[in-house]
Amino acid sequence: MLSSRVPPAFAGRSLLEYLAQRFRYHDEAAWRAFIETRRVTVDGRAARPSQLLARGTLVSFEPPAAEPEIPRELPVVHEEASFLVVEKPAGLVCHADGAFQQNTFLRELERQLSAREQHEVELRLAHRLDRETSGLLVVARSAEAARSFERQFTGGLVEKRYLAIVRGAPAQERFEVDLPIGFSARSEIAIRREASSDARDARDSRTTFEVLERHDDRSLVLCTPHTGRTHQIRVHLEAAGHPVVGDKLYGVPDERYLAWVHAVKAGAPFEVVASFGAEHQLLHAAEIAFAHPLSGEALRFAARWPERFAPFAAR
Question: What is the DSSP letter of 91?
Fold first, then answer.
């Protein structure tokens, strides 16, 4: 635990200002994340970033353990003044979360662009992907672009397509899952969703699927979500009886997921990861289409074929 007393020069300033300006080994975004995750206290109590400080106030900080290493290569598919389209590798979180505060997709991209342009670059994610999902992410470089993307994503105006390697061979070439998604009432895992009208806070959800390749125990499937629910594709594929290969949460019992979490914290021996069929779930954000945030021009972008799919599919 690191502690400091607020000097007279910072009396009347906010907690976030105090930390970001006095202790520059973390930037403002990182300090905000530490405050919001209660790693920073004021006189022993949780605080808000905007809390004003008095002279002599005790500010304490519990530094996180060393963050896990992350993939650093972030291929840029498209770049211009107002936004970028970038490929996120599997295994990289989008934003600060849990053990990852600095080693995130957003912070790494900001670091790389700041180093290239020789000034501080601030970016905004237009949307997110799960840590284990790879593929295209849209990133705004201006407030105007961020507002446009927010309207498009919340309004259902963005078209997205994913590739997935799933267990088994679906009987139909094309099929649809039109089932509401909410928090699972049958699971002890708080983040787990299920496709059921009985799920807590269930919302209408629809995904269409097209089988591109079939094999004895796996298939390559093109997935098109028509709504934007958390874990939607993974939940709907589980409901269809063909969960994503490598998925640790869906298509497996709670006990197996919890055992995997415990193994990760203990060092994740290879055999535990391999038992799921792949190191990371085989889901890839392959295409995205939207209107240019400033001109309104129709745009479409495609990701490269994911090399991690090569052992599982011919394409």
Answer: T
